[in-house]
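Re: the 138-residue chain
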Amino acid sequence: MLARPLLPALLVLAATACERNRAPDPRPMVQKTLQDAFVYPASTRLSMVAGEDAAQITLTSVDSVAKIARWFRQMLVVNGWTLRSDVTAADGEISILATRGDRPLWITLRPNVGGPGTTYSLIGAVTAGDTLRRDSVK
């Protein structure tokens, strides 16, 4: 008998919980900041986040860090990006910085822990001299 009076209260509580404020959709900023960038073939997206003038997409692949880094190095140059930095850490992580005009692109590749493959992130930003102003993101 006690359960019946609680049912309406629980329904109201559940409805209120479903109407939480959602975080802004990161896709428009990801599209703007990573315009002209590309991802390694057959990658799987893990996450996507964005702020007011930067965005990051994190992906994974079954291929090795070395193979993916080699592919990015070649594709960046072929597509008009300038390699600014390419560092390999002792733990096998590779960090690449490339620019195209005023636009920076950071690529960080890490070997997966406990299994084969690679997890990597692409980070792009809108810079002061960039034609992609923050207010142009819809």
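The mean pLDDT is 82.
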